[in-house]
Design a protein that fits this description.
This protein is mainly α. It has 16 helices and eight strands.
Amino acid sequence: MKLRFFFLLGIVLLFLPSAYGEELEGKRFPSLISSLDVPAQLDFCEERVPIEIQGIKERFEKELLLSLWDRPQVILWLKRVPRYMPYIESMLKENNVPDDLKYIAIAESALRPHVSSKRAAIGFWQFMKDTGRKYGLIINEHVDERRNLFASTGAAIRYLKDLHEKLGSWTLAAAAYNMGEQGLEAEILEQGTDNYYHLYLPSETQRFIFRILSVKLIVSNPEQYGFYLSEGDFYPPLEFDRINLTCSHDTPIRIIAEAAKTHFKAIKHLNPEIRGHYLGQGSHTILIPKASSQDFHHQYHKLFQQWLTSKKEAIYIVKAGDNLSLIADRFKVPLAALLIWNKLDLRAAIYPGDRLIIYRMGSESMEADTGIGGEEEDNL
């Protein structure tokens, strides 16, 4: 009996503070019904939304309620806004396009650089690969600029301006951004109307403008919807120095990080478009931590030369019966490291005669045990 009593008491104590906290917190939340008390005049890019029409109002209320239901996600939007939105707003202003277009990025990606959709759209503005390349984004095995805030925002602006010129309204431009201009043009032709709110479109596109409008209302006035964030709650603004760098070889990101007096992860976070562990051969514009550019190039060239001259690498020629796991075990290196050094996938096939780079990790016994290195010209 005692055991049962203490068990039940523990359950009560566990949930009582939570329930009480929820009750107190709930008092600060407006009711969901009151959240639907939206302005009589609602617009997107200064284009009026006919919210007085019952069907339009219903579609909007659905998206607003769904957004408000996912409160953790909304909090993350709000916290990320100071980090990224000033740069987006500045680029929109420079290109003389409506400020409301910034809410598309939140609706599409919640301001996450690496997010991807089921259709393989990627990045802040959720570009498909072909569309991204069409609007000037570099997308290859080394770089994917869909993840770069500045490059992808510039591409999105160019795309939306083209869509606006073709379709005549920013509302239709945003709809075409979601479903593709040819599909939207076909529906306009077939249905005999170019009014977004009267068009019967794929479900995602029918919801898209209303999702953007929900984002706009919440971000513009978070307190009205029960989101009370203080200045210290927001993520700090993105700060950086921008540098130009020409790489004569594929260059380890760790060398760039060391020259910038930071670490690998910081460079990857500032440059999410860089894929893998190396910056590819060629010219690049990259971001490094703020105030680290003054001596960067001098340090980079010194470290790069040291890496070229001091790196301990040899070429192992694959033999019959070898596989990547056996080779990694033989040289006492992690299999993952072997894959990184040789830019291989775990499923990659290797064949006798293939050459693999092996970093010797400072072990003198490896040459005697494996025949790698030493004076054999073929293996160097």
